[in-house]
Amino acid sequence: MALNDFCGHPFWDEQLSWNSSNPIITPCLSETALLWASSGFLWIFTPLAVYLTVKSPKPSLIWTWRLYMKLFLCLVLCVATAYEVIHVFMKYSQNEIIYPYEYTAPVIRLCSFAIATILLLLYKQKGVLTSGLLFIYWFFMAIQSSLKYWALIDSIQNPGYREWTFEQTDLVLKSIQLTSIILICLLYCVADSVNQNDKRKANASGNFVSSSFISQLFFHWYDSMAYLGFKKALIQADLWDLPEESRTKLIHDNFSELLTESQQRLKLMNAKKPVSKARSNLFRTLLKSFWPWLLACFILKLFSSLLAFASPQLLDLLLTFIRSNDPSWKGVILALGMFVAALLQSLFDSQHEFWIQTTSMRMRSALISAIYHKSLRLSGLGRRDYTSGEIVNIMAVDTQRIIDYVNTINVLWSAPVQICLSVTLLWFQLGVASIAGLIFMTALIPLNACIRAAIKNYQIKVMAEKDKRSKMMSEVLNGMKVLKLYAWEGAFEDMIMSIRQNEIQYLKRQAIWTAITHFIANFAPFCVSLVCFATFVLIDSSNVLDANKAFVSLSLINILRSPLIQLPMVVTYGANCIISMKRIDKYLQGDELDPNAVAHEPNTATPIQVKNATFSWSQDEEEVLTDINIEVPQNKLIAIVGTVGSGKSSLLAALLGDLHKKQGSINVHGRIAYVPQTAWLQNATVRENIVFGETFRQEKYNNVIEACALTPDMKILPGGDKTEIGERGINLSGGQKQRISIARAVYSNSDVYLLDDPLSAVDAHVASHLFDKVIGPKGLLKHKTRLLVTHRITFLPQVDQIIVMKDGKIQESGTYNELMAKKGEFADFIIQYLSESETDEDLQDENPIMIEAMKASVKPELEARRSNRADSINALSRQESRMSIRSVRSVSSRGLSLDKKRGEDLKNYNIVATEKAETGSVKYSVYFEFFQAVGVMAFIVTILFYVIANGLNFGSTLWLTEWSEDAEDPTKLNDTSLRLYRLSVYAVLGIGSSIMIFINATIIAMAFLNGATWIHNQMLNKMIRAPMSFFDTTPMGRILNRFTKDIDNADTTISLNFRALFVLTFRGLVAVLGICTETPYLIFGIIIIGVFYILIQKFYIASSRQLRRIESITRSPIYSHFSETITGSTSIRAYGATDHFIQECYRKVDINHSSFFLNIGANRWLSIRLELFGNLIVTVAAFTAVATRGSSTAGATGLALSYALQITQVLSMLIRSVSNVENNIVSIERCLEYTKIESEAMWIDYNNQPRNTWPEKGEIVFKNYSTRYREGLDLVLKNIFCTIKPNEKVGIVGRTGAGKSSLTLALFRLVEPAQGTIAIDGEDICKFGLHDLRQRLTIIPQDPVLFSATFRKNFDPFHKYSDSEIWKALELANLKEYVASLESGLDYSIAEGGENLSVGQRQLVCLTRALLRKTQVLVLDEATAAVDVETDELIQETIRREFADCTIVTIAHRLNTIMDYDKIIVMDKGKIVEYDSPINLLANKNSIFYSMAKEAKLV
Length: 1499
Fold this sequence. Notes:
The chain is an alpha/beta fold. It is 63% helix and 8% strand. The strands form 4 sheets. The protein has a 6-stranded mixed beta sheet with strand order 5-6-7-3-8-9, sandwiched between helices. The termini are far apart. Keywords: ATP-binding, Membrane, Nucleotide-binding, Repeat, Transmembrane, Transmembrane helix, Transport, Vacuole. Its main location: membrane.
């Protein structure tokens, strides 16, 4: 009544607006409810819009005709509405009857138009290209104005028939307003333009940034990328930059502020309550940082979840309409309502998915950057609990778990809401019977929990086996060369196969439980409907199941399917997320370096000053340095010496701020350069490693290269200084790595140089060169302040001051002469050094003149020390001791790796082949090969069972239709026996369908696991038998990726993909069949829409496939950079390169996220289009039902519409499933690629086996032998003619890249001949199988490679030898006592890489292997490189005694170790240039060997 007074006519006239063949909305309704709603929306959200705009301003927009037009139309509306207000008040002043709505509406409208105009100008000024607020407002205003205008036209056409009137002025004003509003609405469909200066930046950021609201709503901005991806294979350069608000730097700046606040608050809380320490809440910090976006996603998900129930309710109304005589327009409105409801649900759902994934991507940026920053600040204590791999794992795996949870977090509340709403609406349909369905669903919860527990239990077992297998694979790949040299590949292949067999058994058991979950997921909705229908018809004979109740209930039960499946999954994600949050939290709370530990006050006279300082590795640990006092004057060279563990490196760490300062003060003035003991290099070019972010200057660079003795290396490396350094510097020798590390320091032109024993990794003559040209008083650094830790005593007389350390204290300091005169710690150190030189041949490389001078200065003390040690020294002559075949820290200590690269194409400076993103679709041959692996019969049976299952499913729905039509037949209405019959048949059909689906799921899982097993075994077989050249050019990570991620996809993901594809294909066919049973001609419309589906899918898959590949490839550099940073964090901090590395991390993350962001857009672009076409099918079906009302039953209409409502989701999921199959079949393609790797020669040739005693003498003959590493490369050995006589001891020498290692590899046929032959005891080695050859030769490699297995397995993987033979070999190798002392003895497990053994023990294990095999030919690759003197003597003595009658071939990097050999082979550029006895070669002063001996100061 009050509204009628307000309006002057009924606010809502049911007869006029609803029960009429020509409905009209009353003017009051449109001018109040509709106008107020749209204006209220604008007024409520304007303050927020203004705040966000002012908070993040952008460059102002340029005036375009669109902006001018919008402003003009807004002003027209304001003027027209102002006139309307004035006109109303003038009428009021003339005492005409004016109802309140007539003046409130124009006033509200005028205010709204004014606000919209102000917002337009503000957006122009602040650079806002598009406004969703204004578009929605003008869109609603267009609807409101249209309805008002319709009432106005009706009033003019029917004068006197309505309770309201309009004047001619109203017609003009409303026409102007309606036209202007519609034009403005259309103009807001297009975004405005940016300034010309910012256009280039906007273009780089892509269409998304410059797109309109409507374009963002329908993802039209992705069209151009989809089209480009369809025309050509996308590459990284084609992708748009990440939008500014999603870039890592901006996100980190905001997030780190909140994180710092949280951590400071935590420190205060812990300070107040030290007993119960609080933990920070990372989730709370993430929530604070991203709450606006999470809230927006919450609202979008809420609307999406609620709109899901609109279609069943409209279906109910439509089925009621079908049986009524209501006007046709009502049916049209309901059909349109179904379309609008479905469209709105699609829009809200797509926007929710897009923004929740974008938000989670931003969270990932925040977490990665926080972890990265923390890694650069971690102290030694903080790092202690984490290996580099674990930190990378936290960044890669734990952040991904958090992201996975955030992507699905809204399901946590939306699933229960949907379940509650479904049950409530079912109550309205079926009454108390719906409770039965609820009880059944509740009963499923513990059952699902038990099944998931079983699956989780098997998943843990599967992951344990996968970890074992990947660990073993990693070890095998790391030690592949050793395995081939020993001919042990088969044994380790069997070990891996055994682990894989266990893994497959667990996977099969897990697959059965997974099939049960699929059965329940399919059976549960049907069973709920069965229980509900059964309860409904059985509790009361008057309950009749009509079409409305049957099909609306089915629609509601179908809605239940998703939340029931998703909720347990989200709970699992949540559990994983909580664990990962705690892990990241713990890491972020780790102990950090104190940035104030080292002061940097200006002090040019004394750049380094330490006063009364005591240091430890952490606050609670014992001191490692005590009472340190140092003053280093400017431009001085200070040497730090002392025994192992005296604190030399710790002192440098203290100066860098890496130690915890307990007391005292420390000041370092100027830029610091740091050379660590173990060189740290990046996976970049040689030049990039040296320049290290500094400006490149050619002359300066050349001087540094020359001074650091790198000029010869630049000539040897395939691409000179543009050669890429492999992971961990794998393609460089230790000496090369160290010299590049020194070159980096020199090039940095710093003020203070901290050099941690940089000369230990290079030869004596190279060390002298580096000292003279770089470090020493005449070197490039002569005007710099230098602290040098060194064991090279011959350089000490040239330094300005020497600091002697012992037990963490400075014992004495002074010049060389002062300290020698004191006869204190330093003199003792020198005496100890010289006395050991009699037995340790490492000292033979020192300058002999300087050594003799030192000996003379401490002669009495030295003689006394020698006499005390006489009993403990083995009385071997110097000549005999030279038989020690030792390694040296030399330029060519890893000649093999460079030999291999020597023949590479010089245009390709990369050491390993780059893994490129594949392009185009996967070939059909891949599918065919995969189906063959799985089993063609399994596919045929699967398809047959799916036909039966879906036939039964369709039959159950048809049966339900028949059942519902009983309600319209009076003879069947109350027939209870018929009801029971209907119910029984319905139950049998549904249960039968579900059982068939369970059987199918089991068959698919088992068949696909069998296929994955076959692929893995074939791949392993081929990989184990691949030639060494394959492993040289293929990074280990790439091979491991095939055996881990790709095989994991083959094991589980691909079977789930194909299962989904089969299920959805048949569901789609059944849905089409169901729709067409009612109206057969709809098949033509479905075919047309189907063609559009296929076209859209083709567009989508072309770009999406490449985006996924690019995203996968750009993710690896993030992990690599992260790993490099963790390893080199000390160097990065020392050089002050932290900011540079942080920016590089940001850049790599942004590059990865640019493809990830576009992929999110691509998914939503596909989704919205597929759902739009699906909604068209629903709409067409609904309109058909309205048009054919009376000619079909409600049951048939309900059948068609229920299937139509399903088809949108089914077809969308089907297209996505096709895409998933094509994306994941790439893993199968990659695995199948490895099943075609070219194999090396056969292991055993049964037609050509050597005699049992071969080789008896050990004579080796090279005849015109040449070889190359791979086809197409240059020869690495050329025309080798050489004879090594039985029992001869032959040393092979030569500079880096000469071919020394290639010659020994040729003996074992790790490289095959290009021409010529190698004969051992007259037999051509190429005619035998590889294992027959390799088992008859023995090698002791330079690096002792051990595997994580028992001692027995490490000695004898084939179980050829008895325990007594093994113990005998252990006794000869002096290892028996140690092994016998172990509780497990020979069954003691060696850790990965032999980490639970000392280096000496590892080398003794290798010696034991050689002693067990004991063949006539022994090859030594500098076998005692890293062992102590005592172990070296043991090994040498054993070799001399046990292999006295054998032919020994030694790769010698140090000449003094082979001076007493029978023959010397000198190699250069792949040829033997000299071959004679050492005496004869030294007699010729023009020989290369003589020049090499002279360089080594041996002559």
